[in-house]
Model the fold of this input.
Amino acid sequence: MKKHITLLSMVLAITSCDIIDGPYITDSDSYINPDKKVLIEDFTGHLCPNCPAAARELDAIHDIYGDQIIGMAIHVSKSFARPYHVSQAPSFQYDFRTNWGDNWDAFYGISSAGLPKGMVNRIGYQNESHKLGKDEWASSVANELKKDVDFKISIDADTNTITISSQLENALINNFNLAVCLTESNIINWQKDGQDNVEDYQHNHVLRTVIYDNKLSSQANFQTGEVIENIFEISLSELEQYNIDYSNNTAELGNGNSGNWNANNMFVIAYIYNTNTKEIVQVEEVHLNN
Amino acid sequence: MREITLLIITISISFLGSSQETNLGEIHGDFNLNLQSYQEDLQIGAQAADEVILNNAYLNINYTRGNFATGFRYESYLNALADYDPEFNGNGIPYRYVTYKIDGLEITAGNYYEQLGYGLIFRSYEEKGLGIDNVMDGLRLKYSPMQGIYLKTFIGKSRTYFTYADGIFRGGDSELNINELFNSESKTRISLGGSFVSRYQERSNLVFKIPQNVSAYSGRLNLNHGRWSYYGEYAYKINDPANVLSASKMNYASGNAFTQNISFSKKGFGIIAEMHRTDNMTFKSDRDKDGKAYLINYIPTLSKPHAYSLLALYPCATQADGEFGVQFDLFYTIKKGSRIGGKYGAKIALNYSRINGLNKGSAFLNDTREHTPMLLSIKGEELYFEDINLSINKKINKKVKGNFIFANQTYNKDFLEGHVPGDYGVLNSTIFVLDFTYKIRGRESIKAELQTLASKQLKDYSNHGGVYENGMEEPAEGDWGMLALEYNSAHWFFGFQNMYNYGNEDVSKRLHYINLTAGFKKGANRFEIGYGKKREGIFCVGGVCKLVPSSNGFSLNISSSF
Done:
């Protein structure tokens, strides 16, 4: 019996151990980090005939990766996004532009390079490779989705208060900014699409306003597990009026026709970016009334 | 399972039936019932139970006859008490076994509890207070081919609630007692042990390699020489990653742990020094599940288990994922008749323990990151728990004896309770306990207990070299006081207890938690009724902890044995 038990123990010891050597990933090409989200900033304009193709590309990428892809349509520049003169009404009378969109466009030099162009998590800013044509988005998205995350963002929002909770996944030195934006989908308005002037084009995730774009926290560094909470009180009517005033007073050839916001179709997008590299390291989106 | 249970009962009855023999064997049993009502109390955050009352009950029956034993336990959770996982809800016989021993071989079929060494790689045990019962179901063989050699091997699945976890465990253990083996009368006694356990769980992952057989090993040495005693155990576990799709959560590092314990004792004096370290040593019965119901190993706590309420208000939970700790104990008895000891002498016990995190966290290995923490590091690491306490136990005269305890505890509430860093920070508590028992006559006595706890929140977190910028986010519980009175006689007992959180930063929570109990005991039966409010808190046994929700209501406790 002793022999039997010793033998049994030996058999167990030999057969019951699966020590695994790296690489641990079996298929690194198809690997996606389920916690990573990617922002595609689609710089566009309703007068840009090639831009709907970029919007369709964004939709196609979203269809593949689902909610890990967050889109933002930023109408910019006089040439691509100005409203037509009132004499040409009713076509192209709306002004989708915003102060923030125009500032980003100037800072990142997008429309001057021709539209449609976009940025995927603002990757490549430091070596001037951040301006991507629509056909470059997908491969950039695939790379981004493999990255580890340092933050998880959760958003609690209604039309009065927006709370952004950013949880640290790793201990970090703070060189991060937080941006909080509102977008609106399902805006039916004019859009050039190739040779056509489409009267009832559906404009989705259009940037409406930026509520905050500043330091994530005043702390010098963060520790793992820490949650940084940023709370914003908002007034949609004031924000809307700001856009109308911007269109009237600042935007080139603006007409002040920037209102009629529909809170039911609005979304909050919050993202955290590295202030040195400008890379967006995490992003989240929820409906304004979530 | 039901068929096996019936079979065991049938076997038991047929054994009982053969009553012509003179030796009928023995039947023993015990019963316990815990019934509690739950009323809403918004002040303390207690919730009412939909069922109004909840009830846990157990009945154990064991039959032994010579080398044969069988038994079962009936458990009833209708529904399970609020501090139990609702997964327990229901009735059943989750524990039944048959065992017999012959010529040094013991065979057990059905359920069995098993522990290898200290349990660093495997411990199947029951702790009703925590709602833990990971009993094995399978086969176990123990064999001693000769004096001094003890072998065992087992195979089985481990219980979770009323079912069994997915993993299949195969294990073995051998122990050599050198003195027994060589029939030595030496003053030095040596015993050596080695253990092995392996879990099989069929798993596949779309993206990552998953080991289906995960094994762990341990070796131990026990040395006794005169008044000195040493115990050491080292454990190792191979890669045991989770089964997720996120690369940053896939950890292929192996795990290891050791515990060392050296003690010296003579009459009236004893010292114990202990040290342990764990790194990535959480071993579960199902790799996909979380929670203590799925833990299959046990890292004993390195802090003194306290019985007094305020001493145990902030208990230390062992971190199998990674911690380093030391503990020292000193026991001294002041002789009777000495100047300090007085007529009856006195007992003094001094205890110190300190537990901190590993350097830059526990071991980690994947395709992009590799980290092995330093073997020993204390300074600058995140402190989890520290406790220094002195207790003096003294009989004052024929009627009165007293117990006095002073303690200072540091408790990393954010880390140990899984809060967001900066919510509560680290608590430092200074605690006094005075406990007097006055013997009236015979078995009749009165006991009075007075406890105070003064608490402050420490704002710095040592391992990041900084302080929480904006102070603590959540209001601290602050200072506590407690008074308890007890009357005991041969049959009756009554108790009153009031815990008063007079220092809570949230003024609306400066509450009295009053508990009243009354009971009657006679022979092997004990009945107790109670009414009171319980604070939400952490309850630990041996470093394994659970969160107990606040409650308000009546309780009935009945226990009986034969």
User: Anything to note?
Assistant: The longest strand of chain A covers residues 206-215. The helical segments of chain A are 2-15, 51-65, 78-81, 99-108, 134-144, 236-249.
